[in-house]
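Sequence in, structure out.
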Amino acid sequence: MSDKPHLIDWFRSSSTYINAHRGKTFVVLLSGEALEDDNLSNIIFDLSLLRSLGIKLVLVHGSRPQISDSLKAAGLACHYHRDLRITEPQSMETIKQVVAGLSIKLQALFTMGLSNSPMHGADVRVVQGNFVTARPVGVHDGVDYHFTGKVRRIHQQAIRQQLDSDNLVLVSNLGYSVTGEVFNLSAEEVATEVAIALQAEKLILMLPTRGVMDSEGQLVSSLSESDAQNYMEQARGQDDNEAYCVAHALQAALHAYASGVKRLHLISFRENGALLQELFTRQGSGSLLSKDSFDLLRAANISDVPGILALIKPLEQAGTLVERSRELLENEISNFQVIELEGSIVACAALYPISDSAGELACIAIDPAYQRNDMGSRLLQSLEKLAQRKGLDTLFVLTTVAAHWFQEHGFSPCSPDALPEQRQRLYNFQRNSKVFSKQL
């Protein structure tokens, strides 16, 4: 197998994530659109694998398109107000049948166990119950929403008992009231409230797109709260189903984020293996909203050496960076700052004093998956402040490929002769690096 070494390397590197995720609670939302997709069986395989790796799973499923189709087939009208379905009394029997059918479909998929199936030997026990207490939305703008509801309470202790018994908990978009009525809820709201009540490690929202895409059609792999808010507003302004799904997922993610859920992942339900790639590789597969993405810029320590080496190795092989041995890096680690994301080093840079008044920036490296997230600028700003605290008034940088980027950040070209004498003696004329300086 030509890809055998790659597979072995990937499997070994995934152990960091396997250890980090074991025993944690993940809430996963499968929208009604996801349940209709041809990739659904692969998602079930991957969810079963997560459970086998010791992850506690709550799976919330929606039914929006199926309900619309069934109501239309039954000759019943679909009415919306403020982007929310009005669930009229005559529609409830159809809705209950649709949701029950989808729940049964998922339970059947998790029961598969043929010897030639990835589910063989998995023995997944799926539990459903009245875990969600609901209340009516009520009347707004004179419009009665009837049996459209909102989450009133999540019975988190009951869910916890099932998770601790090694069961997968399945939750639908139906809620039950203290008066014995059934209400039609938003699946996004249910998933969000379950994640908040359980203090879940992750809320995973599966989309028809790769994740959140920018105006150029490029994946935005890491989101700040303001980024997520802006992309949500943009999606709301578009008139298509994919944008509708993204807008609702971002709204749910922002609510969970504000309520303390640590990490919100938005990934594709169409792409085979997207869930595993997002959770078990450095590059990921979708978009992540997490405080970690922006808070963990810190001074490096000796335990970061393997992560920095893995990050800079491709750049060294390309000739962009000068090669550094593990021993050299260990000796110089106090000069480095890093950005850490979910236990992995995704960006690094170093500041070397080269005279009493000058320093050199070096070894700036950013994981390709995060180069559109302004991490280089954040590292540069941090090191400039550090240089000022050290009493340095000039920064130099030598580069072969990033001249324009440094000029955009206030550096000016200069001659190698402008370097302090000690650094001039180390200048490599074969590399012919361009020299830039900046007054602090």
